[in-house]
Amino acid sequence: MNILDKIIFDKKREVILKKSIIPVSQLEASVLFGKKTISLSQNLRNSNSGIIAEHKRRSPSKAEINYSFTVEEVVKGYESAGACGISVLTDGKYFGGSLDDLLLARASVNIPLLRKEFIVDEYQILEAKAHGADLILLIAAVLTRDEIKSLSEFAKSLGLEVLLEVHNLEELEKSIMPTLDMIGVNNRNLKTFEVSLDFSKELASKIPNDFVKVSESGISSVEAINELKPYGYKGFLIGENFMKTDNAGKAATEFINQL
Fold first, then answer.
1. Catalytic: 241?
2. Collapsed DSSP state (helix, strand, coil) of residue 110
3. pTM of this prediction?
4. Are 63 and 95 in contact, with CB atoms under 8 Å apart?
5. What is the C-alpha separation between 26 and 121, in angstroms, rounded?
6. Which of 217, 234, 240, 241 is catalytic?
7. From the candidates 186, 200, 215, 241, which is the catalytic residue?
8. What does the pLDDT look like over 100-118, one tens digit per residue?
9. Active site residue 216
10. Is 217 a catalytic residue?
């Protein structure tokens, strides 16, 4: 069982437990549930930088990245740096995140928020909406075509945008459908954790232009972004690079200014 299989196994159990405690009606009664969402895909189309900055405390590949910031400090720093949107990791066991992080981010900024999570159930999409997310992530590696279809349709029915993450041509081909807004190519192989920008380059021409192209993971330099832009990428998801510094907002500001 690789790390991704482990995460999904744990996630399915977690969702069953949460459903037994917090009913859907409680999520739908949240103050944020009726809030109008902000479009990340539009922001990326109109941006010169295309940066989606991430709040991330740790990961399976890097045990600890940074626990010294508050969510508010990080996301406000990202917003003032000029990020197009912010990705908030909400997985607890493997990434040290929580839905409270999403809630605090929503209370602090007014730019699009992505719930970065291993989504396997509609219930998690309701949670995302109830905690102030504007879009969700679906990971093609862990979902069937039918699951991607039903989950993305459900997200759209709630006014949420959908970023679909792929890692190879097979995942991309099974996933293309009109209920997606953005297609992200993960430069990190989720099974081996090796990182290469070649993944983004190889898949770029296969992604239809109806979708905003996003490159994720392993982007640590302005050169890398300039290398990917000719391939049609409009969005660049960066987490570790900012979070491992003493001041994530300042690091993001300097990075975006260089761009």
1. no
2. coil
3. 0.97
4. no
5. 17
6. 217
7. 186
8. 999 999 999 999 999 999 9
9. yes
10. yes
